[in-house]
């Protein structure tokens, strides 16, 4: 069973359609990247995938269960099967990094405080933030906030992680460190990543497979291995995107 | 036992024990075995007289390990270390062995509990005094800047952002009319009923409306309006400017050479000066009307109450209340803006600023009212 299967999905708000007739699957353990120019609906698609907003039509199967139809406890169980990292981190400002990571465990597990502390410390160690466990989000840099946000998303050790522009606004070195972290987590913990980004360097480093959305086409204009798309795609927009050129 | 994980604890000798794990060692499953196995391990370690008791974890049938599973294995290791014992994992998938090796050494995962320093009374007093002095200093600084702002407005009235002033005024004034009317009306009714209970015993029900109205014009009208203004508008000013501070918008104004006091504070303070007296007069009218209406229930005609009011309430009473309300307007709007400008970082800081704005405003309102009461006593105004 595929972790994510999307069929005939229409993404938009009210009468405004951003993308339609989207069909794709995400394989287990894969780093799957959604890319495209500004305003093509990447983040909106991601928000549909993790259930923040309902799609206009179509189905989203998470581990074979339809997220768009799930209600009540069934929906909550489904929502807990994945973690989400928002673009700005969205860490809780009044809690230390350790408490941010512990929060979901406190809500949804029966572990003791010492056990939760140890798991949270292991998770923070995985993202390289163990020495900063007692700091507040406002006391750490943007790159560290994104790492902490990934740690929080991993709190219940979900098998799927959705990341919204993890590298946006980071310097190249920090961005490369974050890319390596994503690769390590994917390989070591078998986590499936669905990532929205338009950072070319990141895409080339981490992506096993990509789909590219286009505003004018209102849908997917390319999908596959980014290295192949970069060199072999005959679509002008795909070529321009991967080779960072503008012919307009 | 969880359906995802199985743990079999076996003591082979005082020197050796084995733990056989099967299945998935993850967040949802470790909770079911953690406490039980740890207590067995502790009991075995306590009973063991061996110098180096050895625990061997057989993980050949472990299918999956996540960070909770890693934490569990680390905790077993830690118990062995504390008892100066040995710890060995066999058969664990190479991938998970590599994951586990990332946490070596394990000591940093067990930081010593932080010593909570409790300040003595002298230190606490010192800290409170220091905070109080800082608060006074920033208050004096802010008052100075706002005073300079008034001179600037007087010199260059056209440079004030009048559109912002009108917007702040309409939010703080027009939008507040229904709540001010409701509260003023109810206060009038309550005062009339309460006063009538006492004065009726002396056959002086006729004097309820004039007496209560005098109190409303001089005291209660301005006070109630100012407290409502503090709760609605000082809080709103603090939250709005506080959010701007958190988002570096105030810094952006400063670096663009725009004085934040002139840009953000003066329009709101001037709106407060204009709006609070108007709201006060409005509240006075509604309250007095409520008193006179209530007294009709005691067979005191509306006209009688009105004539009594005209004879007892003079213009000085109205002026006294209005002048006080002007001061309340400046003070409350100023405090709201000041608390907003003092906002720290993060969403919680905005909440703190808003609370401080309302609390400080109400305290200062009562303080100013007390000063006015004294002046009134001394001058007869």
SSE layout:
The complex is a heterodimer of chains A (248) and B (381).
Chain A: E1 4-13, E2 16-26, E3 31-36, H1 42-49, E4 57-62, E5 65-66, H2 72-79, E6 82-85, H3 97-108, H4 113-126, H5 142-153, E7 160-164, H6 172-189, E8 192-196, H7 200-206, E9 209-214, E10 219-224, H8 226-232, H9 236-242
Parallel strand pairs in A: 3-8, 3-9, 6-7, 7-8
Antiparallel strand pairs in A: 1-2, 1-4, 4-5, 9-10
Chain B: E1 5-13, E2 16-25, H1 27-47, E3 54-65, H2 67-82, E4 86-90, H3 94-101, H4 121-155, H5 162-172, H6 177-200, H7 208-246, H8 249-255, H9 260-296, H10 302-312, H11 315-341, H12 347-379
Parallel strand pairs in B: 2-3, 3-4
Antiparallel strand pairs in B: 1-2
Helix pairs in contact in B: 1-2, 4-9, 5-9, 6-7, 6-9, 7-9, 7-10, 7-11, 7-12, 9-11, 11-12
Describe the structure.
- The complex is a heterodimer of chains A (248) and B (381).
- Chain A is an alpha/beta fold.
- Chain A folds into two domains: 1-11 and 24-81 and 161-248, P-loop containing nucleotide triphosphate hydrolases (Rossmann fold), CATH 3.40.50.300; 92-157, no CATH class.
- Chain A has helices at 42-49, 72-79, 97-108, 113-126, 142-153, 172-189, 200-206, 226-232, 236-242; strands at 4-13, 16-26, 31-36, 57-62, 65-66, 82-85, 160-164, 192-196, 209-214, 219-224.
- In chain A, the strands form two sheets. In chain A, strands 6-7-8-3-9-10 form a six-stranded mixed beta sheet, with helices on both faces. In chain A, strands 2-1-4-5 form a four-stranded antiparallel beta sheet, covered by helices on one side.
- In chain A, helix 8 (226-232) packs across helix 9 (236-242).
- Chain A is globular and about 55 Å long.
- The N and C termini of chain A lie far apart (43 Å).
- Chain B is of the alpha/beta class and 381 residues long.
- Chain B has two domains: 5-109, Transcription Regulator spoIIAA; 127-379, no CATH class.
- Chain B is 71% helix and 9% strand.
- Chain B is built from twelve helices and four strands.
- Chain B has helices at 27-47, 67-82, 94-101, 121-155, 162-172, 177-200, 208-246, 249-255, 260-296, 302-312, 315-341, 347-379, and strands at 5-13, 16-25, 54-65, 86-90.
- Chain B has a four-stranded mixed beta sheet, with helices on one face.
- In chain B, strand 3, helix 2 and strand 4 (86-90) form a beta-alpha-beta unit.
- In chain B, helix 5 packs parallel to helix 9 and helix 9 (260-296) packs across helix 11 (315-341).
- Classes of the chains: A alpha/beta (248), B alpha/beta (381).
- Chain A binds chain B through residues 93-94, 105, 109-112, 115, 118-119, 121-123, 125-126, 130-131, 133-134, 136-138, 154, 156-157, 187-190, and chain B through 26-28, 30-31, 34-35, 64, 66-68, 70-71, 74-75, 95-96, 98-99, 102-103, 108-111, 114, 345-348.
